[in-house]
Amino acid sequence: MLRDTIDDMKVTSAFNYASRTATANGTNIIDMRGFGTCTFIVQLATVTTADSSNYFTLTLEAGDDSSLTDGAAVTASTGLLGSNLVINDATTQSNMVGMMGYVGGKRYVRLVVTETGTASAAFSAVAVQSLSAIQPVGDQAFA
Question: In this structure, which of 3, 68, 72, 96 has its CB flanked by the most CB atoms within 10 Å?
């Protein structure tokens, strides 16, 4: 069987596009069942207010409960690939893309945005799950 990326990955919205000015949990909790890894891709639009005192930190939270009531921060030792993302420069970070990943042993994972100060930025994020146990993953065309 020919292995290609479209048959081996699932893409889910992690954060719907919006202008953010507060701490928030991801739009969707990602179920890792059947997948070996998940990459979160964050696309910044306009970063209005961000500097060393006013910024967003994007982290991952994982757990085994489907509502993540048992959620804990993901670190390098618990499956973080790359590093946490920080939106802290209104001058240079507008229209940029960043990513971080998860390869831990928990069933569920989500993106978490924590605000420090009074930051303002418009962005969205998707979760790209890959290394699927069964291919093809399924058609993800618009309905």
Answer: 68
CB 19 within 8 A of CB 87: no
- Distance CA(56)–CA(88), nearest Å, equals 7
Question: What's the rounded Cα separation, in Å, for the pair 80 and 104?
Answer: 7
**pLDDT for 37-74, tens place per residue?**
999 999 999 999 999 999 999 999 999 999 999 999 99
> Whole-angstrom Cα distance, residue 102 to residue 118?
28
Can you tell me the mean pLDDT for 115-133? 94
CA dihedral 41, 47, 51, 56 (to 10 degrees): -40
Count other Cβ atoms within 10 Å, centred on residue 139: 7
DSSP string, 83-133: --EEE--TTT-TT-EEEEEE--S-SEEEEEEEEESS-EEEEEEEEEEEEES
In sequence order, what are the beta bridge partners of 31?
108
For the chain, percent of residues with pLDDT exceeding 90? 83
With pLDDT > 70 as the criterion, what percentage of the chain qualifies?
97
Report the C-alpha gap between 124 and 126 in whole angstroms. 7
Total count of residues recorded for the chain = 143
